[in-house]
Amino acid sequence: MSRFLQLVLDIFDGVATPAQPQPQPPALHGPHLPSEPLGQVLPKAHYAHPRATRRIQLGSTDVAYAFRRGKRRTIGMAIGPDGLEVSAPRWVTLGEVESALHEKADWIARKLVEMQERQQQLGASRIVWADGVVLPYLGDPLQVVLDSSRMLKKNSAQFEPATSGAHALRLGLPLNAEPQQIRDAVQAWLMRQAKALFVERLNHYAPQLGVQWQRVSLSSAATRWGSASANGAIRLNWRLVHHKRDVIDYVVAHELSHLRVMDHSPRFWDTVQSVMPDYAQRRRVLKDEPLPPWS
């Protein structure tokens, strides 16, 4: 589905005759062309959240969305891989919720299209677990090589850095190993590397922030990169190890900053910025550069 559609409008003012040609209206160029609401420009589309409880027609876009009420002050809208999710305070009427959705119809339509395109891209980049598969490791390509020779212990993993091109991860598995075996071996190795790197970076940033972490554990959350508890417990998503070190450092500094400020207030972001002035740029990578899905 194309993200942007261009409309060409022919404007006529009556019917011209050879004897009395009608004056032509001034041509419309570039930014002077009247804008069309995105909900009207897009072709008819249907989006359904798997946990949808309500439905609404936004221009030409039919949206079935997940709706819930909670302890909040405003109406919230979020678009993820499953579609549109809406949350609202208990005192807000359904009519007010729908009015807010109509007000944001262009934004919702645009984000649903973008998310659909993003999911299609991720599907195309899905990892196929076989000899020679390449996946990112600390921002660089890592090629998996199956090796059942006597030089490599069975079920072991050996990292071979490259001066140019892709690094290699040699696994002690036969060439006919099942995809699940390959995936499990690669994941186990990546998790070990992630844990060691996280400990190193936590120890690097904790003194700078004046905090002390107590323990770190690995997370496999689908949409969350990390969390921190007031007791000093840190959880970090092991798949961060796919990203470059500066991105990993941002998440580490983010969670450690929560040991000083347990919210996302301006004071919290000032705390992050105190050790990482360019944190916004690093944070953006997490949104703009999605990782290949595992299967």
How would you describe the overall organization of this protein?
33% of the residues lie in helices and 22% in strands. The protein has seven helices and twelve strands. The strands form three sheets. Strands 1, 2, 3, 4 and 5 form a five-stranded mixed sheet that branches. It has a four-stranded mixed sheet with strand order 6-7-9-8, covered by helices on one side. A hairpin with a 2-residue loop joins strand 6 (134-137) and strand 7 (140-146). Helix 5 (245-257) crosses helix 6 (266-275) and helix 5 (245-257) packs across helix 7. The longest helix has 31 residues, at 179-209.
Output the keywords:
five-stranded mixed beta sheet, 12 strands, disordered N terminus, 295 residues, alpha/beta
Mean pLDDT: 82
- Annotation, overall tally of beta strands: 12
- The chain-level structural class is alpha/beta
Q: Point out poorly predicted stretches.
A: 1-36, 38-42
Strand coverage percent: 15-25%
Fraction of helical residues:
25-40%
Distance between the termini: 25 Å
Helix-strand sequence: HEEEEEHHEEEEHEEEHHH
Blueprint of the fold:
Elements: H1 38-41, E1 45-48, E2 54-58, E3 61-70, E4 76-80, E5 83-89, H2 94-103, H3 105-124, E6 134-137, E7 140-146, E8 157-160, E9 167-171, H4 179-209, E10 215-219, E11 226-228, E12 233-237, H5 245-257, H6 266-275, H7 279-288
Parallel strand pairs: 1-3, 3-5, 7-9, 10-12
Antiparallel strand pairs: 2-3, 4-5, 6-7, 8-9, 11-12
Helix pairs in contact: 4-5, 5-6, 5-7
